[in-house]
Amino acid sequence: MAAGTPTLENHPLGQLEERVERAVALVARLRQEKEAALAEAAAAKAELEGAEKMNAALGQDAETLRAELEALRTERTQVRARLEKLIGHIDQLGTA
């Protein structure tokens, strides 16, 4: 090359080409990052929906257990009253 002849890197067209290549690489990387972020967001959304369904099911289970507990307490009170009544009858038989 003769002195004063611009090299490809120093040539305005070469600089433009280099900038375009960097821009294309940047756009490609950003698209990949966008796709990864969208996939991650979809996975997080699915996980959240699963957790919400589980929470709803647990809430229903808790309500069922509360109702069963209340029924058992009521039954216990009734059994206690019946036993006290029977013991009272037995005591009356023993004193008669």
Task: Write a brief structural summary.
The chain has about 100 residues and is mainly α. Helices cover about 90% and strands about 0% of the residues. The chain has 1 helix and no strands.
On the 0-100 scale, what is the average pLDDT? 91
Shape: rod-shaped
Q: What distance lies between the first and last C-alpha atoms, to the nearest angstrom? A: 135 Å
* Total strands: 0
| Portion of residues within helices | over 70%
User: What is the helix/strand order?
Assistant: H
C-alpha Rg (nearest Å): 41 Å
Tally of helical runs: 1
* Uncertain ranges: none
Backbone structural class: mainly alpha
Task: Give an overview in words.
With 96 residues, the chain is mostly helical. Helix content is 88%, strand content 0%. The chain has one helix and no strands. The chain is rod-shaped.
